[in-house]
Amino acid sequence: MRDQGSTPADLVREVYLGGAPKLTTDLTALEAAARAVMTPEAVGYVLGDAGTGDTGQANRRAYARRELVPRMLRGAARRDLSVTLLGQRLPSPVLLAPIAAQTVVHPEGELATVRAAASVDVPFVLSTGSSHSLEDVAAVAGAGPRWFQLYWPSDRTVAESLVRRAEASGYTAIVLTVDAPTFGYRPTDLDHGYLPFLRGHGIANFTSDPAFQAGLPEGGSVVGHWARVFANPSLDWDDLPWLRKVTSLPILLKGVLHPADARRALDLGAIDGVVVSNHGGRQLDGTVAAFDALPAVRAAVGDDVPVLVDSGIRTGSDVLKALASGADAVLYGRPYVYGLALDGQDGVAHVLRCLLADLDLAMALAGCPSTADITSDLLR
Question: Contact at 8 Å (CB) between 125 and 102?
Fold first, then answer.
């Protein structure tokens, strides 16, 4: 936990006084460093995008196209990075995005990640496809808020069991991912003939689930049963009210790009917020950049509905731009996995401290003493 009197930007002074850190502070250089330590299969899985990779590149281009127009003399000596989300006050507008099968880059996987997140007060969103069970992750997660991301299985009894387990383990929101009814066409994984789940990574929440185990055919393959249950391409809007009846936790719909989808989800009365996302470019190649879709989704749902965004965010300035475009918070993805690959728990903590320091300084330099001061007139 961060000291009450400290600020994220204190990292800069620590580095200057203490010498060069073990890992780079350039959040855009982590990918190249991580490539050097990961197996070819892990590189393909973590870095690989769908199709030509155009959507992944578009996510970064979208942030580069929008420029900040900072304001001066705004009294930003100290910044308040906190935001209120789903009734909770969070120390910053950053949460860790759900990323599956993290043991492909480090044996501790999600356990190392969630401990690092707790050390810097960043909430963690656990993937259904985690390599450690949601109970084991909760046991080391600390007291901070944590959410559970749900890939809705084709077996409703398994879906309900996962949600009930998340509730019982202290997860405080459900993030229903809807942009992955099936895996995207990912040439890097296909060329390696590699899917981590078929090698035992990322299926712990299923192998530990009583409903999943009850449905396992006698003498059947666990991985084969997982393959039958995990994907759910038949999921449609009529299913959402059922999930609302299963849980009283807030539900966020992740994978929304079209404003009409965001509006329809709200009109059903089944969700509490949306996450604008194209799955980091890993699902449908050629889709709109998530950042470009954000303003229209915000306009469709109004000012009072929580809207988060992911896909393509790398730096503190990116977070600033996302908030100025209408997001309440961001989900931060691949860079923390690079930190995990490079130095385990300490690597994740380093990446998050760098991001928060960058955001803290970006707010000071843009003339934003608090997140409430981050408005659309900062962008051109």
Answer: no
Query: Among candidates 358, 372, 322, which has minimal Cα distance to 74?
Result: 372
Q: Which of 132, 225, 279, 350 is flagged as catalytic?
A: 279
pTM of full prediction above 0.70? yes
What region, left, alpha or beta, does residue 70 occupy, with left being phi > 0 and alpha being psi -120 to 50 degrees? beta
The predicted model gives 212-220 an average pLDDT of: 93
Cβ burial of 245 (10 Å; 0-12, 13-18, 19+) is exposed
pLDDT in tens, 177-205: 999 999 999 999 999 999 999 999 999 99
- Rounded to an integer, the average pLDDT of 289-305 is 97
**279 is known as an active-site residue:** yes
Residue 28 CB neighbour total at 10 angstroms: 12
2: pLDDT strictly greater than 90: no
Cβ-contact 10, 297 below 8 angstroms: no
Q: Give dist(CA 259, CA 295) in Å, integer.
A: 9
How much is the pLDDT for 4?
60
The listed CATH number (3.40.47.10, 3.20.20.70, 3.90.1150.10, 3.60.15.10) that belongs to domain 76-217+242-369: 3.20.20.70
pLDDT at 6: 87
Residue 25 confidence (pLDDT) above 90 = yes
**Which residues pair with residue 96 across a beta bridge?**
124, 332
- 150 neighbors 176 (Cβ within 8 angstroms): yes
Extents of the domains making up the chain = 76-217+242-369
Question: 29 — phi, psi (to 5°)?
Answer: -100, -5
